[in-house]
Design a protein that fits this description.
By secondary structure, the chain is mainly β. It is about 10% helix and about 25% strand. It contains two helices and nine strands. A hairpin with a 5-residue loop joins strand 1 and strand 2.
Length: about 170
Amino acid sequence: RRRLFNDYDSVAEERLMGNSDLFPISYLQTGINSGNPVCRIQIRNEKGSYIGYGTGFLVSDNILMTNNHVIDNMHTAINSLAEFNYQDDANFMPCPTYNFRLNPEQFFITNEELDFTMVALKDNPASEKHPKDFGRLNLIPGEGKILEGEYVSIIQHPNGGPKSVTI
């Protein structure tokens, strides 16, 4: 590629081509902070066997939001677990995880048409952390929060794997 540059054009390698896809470095730290309340949901049956995985995130100290197609009823919720920090560290080693049972008796709401479920979490006395220690993603009321053509980053657990991001 360097052969295509004019020898007298000292900034050719720095020049932007087309639209800029640059972000400030703080975007990465904001992403790390936003990823803390994101968890993997282990969907289990009444025998405790895994039947699938999903992604959820805290919207308050102990209320988890996910999709209705992940948890569509209280029976599924009562057998499932929220697993926080299921991700790899900078050395590609697994981080310590923190599990919490779902508590649909305390709070549960779902809507198939809007594809969301919100459910409370139980504290885990065996854990050194509480759900609120992971922070939360605040829901913003109203419409029009995203602009057409605007970049979107999604933090998720694809296929039940470690936390990942798509930018």
